[in-house]
Amino acid sequence: MRRAYILKQVHEKLPLILLPPRSNKYFKHLLSRSAQVHCLASSSIAEDINSRLRSGGACYHSLQNLLSSRLLSKNLKIKIYRNIILPVVLCGCKTWSLTLREERKLRVFENMVLRRIFGSRREEVTGEWRRLHNEKLKDLYSSPSSVRVITSRRMRWAGHVARMGEERGLYRVLLGKPEGR
What we know:
This protein is mainly α.
């Protein structure tokens, strides 16, 4: 018996995907729930961030051996973090409005990954092994933090919305002039 494959496009900017029949319920794409539903309530954003952090944590744990390996350079480990783990966590972040609690969760996750990448340090005076402090991690990781990346993506998204035509609903919401029910 031949299996028919379904050609599906999840989002207009993503390529078409060949899916086996009845696999739609098992297919989880990276678009955030808030981007799918266009619901910007704070509770759904918090749920979305928690879901992204869980997905990023699963990705981190699957790559944990690579990130702690002494065979790979620190630059390669940082590239793995930036290109594999961070996109999973930050997918759909341009619609998030972060509270201090959510910013802290993102910073904790980022510091956990960076501590795995940079390892612990030996103190010169006592010779003891110690975990790296947050400030030292920030110095070693020269890229902007995930919270700054989210802020810049939100600003870029707001610029796109501001340049939209007046007939677009999102533009009217930005101006504070929604019409209809």
